[in-house]
Amino acid sequence: MMRQIKGQLNARIHWRQTFTALKYPNYRLWFWGQMISLFGTWMQATAQAFLIFELTHSSAYLGLAGFATGIPTWLFMLYAGVVSDRMSRRRLMIITQTSMMVLAFITAGLTFAHVIQPWHIIVLAFGFGLTNAFDAPPRQAIVQELVDPEDMTNAIALNSTMFNTGTALGPALGGVTYALFGPAWCFTINGLSFIAVIAALSKMKLKPFVPKPHKNSVMTDLKEGLRYVARHPLIRTIISLIGVVSLFGISFATLMPAWAVKILHGGATTNGALQSIRGFGALFSALLIASLGRFKFRGKLLTFGSFLFPILLLVFAFIRSLPLSLVLLFSVGFAQILIFNLANATVQTLTPDALRGRVMSIYALTFFGVMPLGALLIGWTATHAGEPVAIIVNALAMLAYAGIILVFMPKLRHLQ
Question: Given 3-state DSSP classes, what are the helix, strand and coil percentages for the chain, each rounded to the nearest 5?
């Protein structure tokens, strides 16, 4: 399979196609507004994690903060998907982005005043989770309003590009800012960065939103989305894969502050570098996928990524050198985005527009809702067995599930 993928990649890579979606004015506004905002988001995430570790010196507390972020996801994400299909997605996102801006400034104010406590961070994490629950479905679904259908895969790949540019540069910038000026400035910059995406959303020239008559109740519409996913074997399999990767895979990033200090004997700058290099790998992966254009071997590439990601994590767990750790994390980021980018694009391609908000809310619920459970689990495991053992156990669980899909769902790897 790897030889087939290599041959198809060599035949299909056209770097001129990488930025096709940017020819659409609305998508350009979206791209650059989100890019600026994501820099601030990752600065805040990096600073917040390291601050809570400085306050508590506890890997378990890092997991608890991630867990608090996810509670609103379980409570509201599916409802948010129905809302996303019933109201203007742009208007909904302006509300959620403004709310996140206010929360960032509150965090900055408490930190500047030197009164910030671990419980403050937990409460604010819950607030960010609440706004994200209503932000994620329209953020996933709005792409089809910004580009033509044939360029949606490219647009989703570029979404990953901007996300991972923020992942690559935001944590490093956050680590340096934290070391030089303190965490409060990281939170302040994040608050200011939301202005860019709010302005971009306001300037878009979209078709007027026409509310559709809704004879069904919210619960009936919600059940319709759940039934569609349950009866569609490929979508069901892809979303289950995202759930397993969110539970056992990306939760390893929760341990990076502790890994930087306890395993690599570094500090805030080391933590920022570890977070950033993973983003650079993901950025390279996203650009590669975007350059493929309208390729027809998504299934093979997605299957390949589902095996590559856990194998690289297993190797990383045994590395104690910072330079080698950075090399491994670059590769981990590359493999991770193969899974998330291709899964997202495939689910959207297979879903009719009338159900897109609800299906993507199920996708987002699986992604964001399972992630805090993973953070709590890996934090608990690291506390009792050590950080390396926690990562090894999670990687083996992912590897086993990838094998199950390979054996019992062969249609996935043949998906075009």
Answer: 85, 0, 15
Is the pLDDT at 396 greater than 70? The verdict is yes
Angle at 18 between CA 84 and CA 3, to 5 degrees: 105
d(CA 391, CA 215): 49
**List of residues 6+ apart from 210 with CB closer than 8 A:** none
Long-range pairs of 312-321 with CB within 8 A, sequence gap ≥ 24: 313/249, 313/252, 313/391, 313/394, 313/395, 313/398, 314/391, 314/392, 314/395, 314/396, 314/399, 316/391, 317/388, 317/389, 317/391, 317/392, 317/395, 318/388, 320/263, 320/264
d(Cα 389, Cα 382) in Å, to the nearest integer?
7
pLDDT at 212 over 80: no
Residue that the structure tokens 């890996």 belong to: 378
Q: Is 26 helix (H, G, I), strand (E, B) or coil?
A: helix
Give me the mean pLDDT over the 62-74 stretch.
78
Q: How far is CA 243 from CA 12, 53, 194, 225, in A?
A: 30, 27, 29, 18
Domain ranges of the chain: 2-204+217-413
pLDDT at residue 11, rounded to an integer: 46
Fold of 2-204+217-413: Growth Hormone; Chain: A; (1.20.1250)
Decide if 190 contacts 105 (C-beta within 8 A): no
Strands (E) located in 186-343: none
d(CA 185, CA 43): 9
pLDDT of residue 329: 93
- Which pLDDT score, from 0 to 100, does residue 215 have? 66
DSSP letters for 200-234: HHHH--PPPP-PPP--S-HHHHHHHHHHHHHH-HH
For residue 127, give Cα distances in angstroms to 72, 96, 113, 121: 8, 11, 20, 10
pTM of the model: 0.70
Phi–psi pair at 383, nearest 5 degrees: -65, -40
Using CA atoms, how far apart are residues 120 and 126, in angstroms rounded to an integer? 10
**R_g over Cα of the chain:** 20
Q: Which residue has the tokens 């009164």?
A: 115
